[in-house]
Amino acid sequence: MPFASLAMALGTFWSTMQINQISKSIYFNAKVRQNIKDFGPVAVILFMTLLNLSPWFRNIGIPVLTVPKTFELAGGRSFLVDFLSVPLKVRMLCSLPAILLTALFFMDHNISIRLVNKADNKLKKGEAYNLDMVALGIVTGGLSIVGLPWMCGATVQSMNHVRSMTTTAFNEETKQVEVVDVTENRLSGFVVHAMIALTVNLLGVLKYIPVPVFSGLFLFLGRKLMTGNTFLQRVRDSIAERKRLPPDHPVFAVGKVRVSLFTGIQLMCLIGMWMFKQNAATSIFFPSAIGLLMIIRSKVLPRFFTEEELVVLDPTP
User: Which are the contacts of 19, defined by CB distance < 8 A and separation ≥ 6?
Assistant: First the structure.
């Protein structure tokens, strides 16, 4: 069963990757390729689900989603949280992790906004950072009253939403897919989340979807977001032949030693954050670790790199 689950997860990942790459292919016209790219992942989920329902796969016993038969809150509790039933001392102690969570929400949301509003997306509307933060605060406050999961910047979902609203074209000169335009609106986000809420009426259907299918989709989303990540590109380029690197690569501006040093520091920070997050005793202070990265960038790195080098190695303002 583990091997069959792994094969289904990798099959889902490979299929969605191929569907995502169809926009670069020579087959069909642009409209057909776009429709295949938009609805292909759904078709993969349906195919894998139907495959798992076949008699041969049923004998293997691939795990499926575990969903309740009816919509109810955890433990059958009431809709509103009875805060007064919690001792005052406990409520006061909760203020410390609440401050850390506030810092995490703030940084996570701003990171998502910065990624969405990067120059490559060619967005026209203003950023409206403050309005978004107010909306997030109101929603988070309402969810706290009823004891439901909090909202956050949802970096992965936000980036994929922008990409789904993006019109791209294949540049014959650069041999790269480039952004032409992004359809900017608030309606699509509202409709997407409204449809997610409506899935509570599909509990009887969702229980048939295999868990490995979601594992493959999450792997695809993670791999997709790695595209364009400058840190990962520098790790890859560290073993690349120098003359095959693009002319604007940082190695030609500051040298390979400086690029390797900067990448090594980033790698150590990443490993440190991962260990910090994996430790149950320190994971609650994870937002503080993210804040520490800002201190390292603003106070520590300038001691090892000049301002000109940092502009080349870390161009994000």
Answer: 36, 37, 40, 41, 44
CA distances from 186 to 116, 132, 199 (A): 14, 12, 21
Q: What is the DSSP letter of 63?
A: -
What CA–CA distance (Å, rounded) separates 303 from 317? Answer: 19
CA distances from 151 to 53, 108, 117, 205 (A): 35, 11, 20, 26
pLDDT digits 0-9 by tens, 180-189: 888 888 888 8
Q: Backbone phi, then psi, for 166, in 5-degree steps?
A: -95, 135
Report how far apart, in Å, the C-alpha atoms of 47 and of each of 8, 203, 266 are. Answer: 11, 19, 41
From 157-171, 207-221, 292-306, the region with the lowest mean pLDDT: 157-171
Contact 140, 184 (CB under 8 A): no
Q: What are phi and psi of 29, to 5 degrees?
A: -100, 175
Q: Which residue has the tokens 């997860």?
A: 9
Q: Are 158 and 118 in contact (CB under 8 A)?
A: no
CA–CA separation, 113 vs 171, rounded Å? 27
Neighbours of 16 (CB within 10 A): 23
228 sits in the region (left: phi over 0; alpha: psi -120 to 50; else beta) called: left
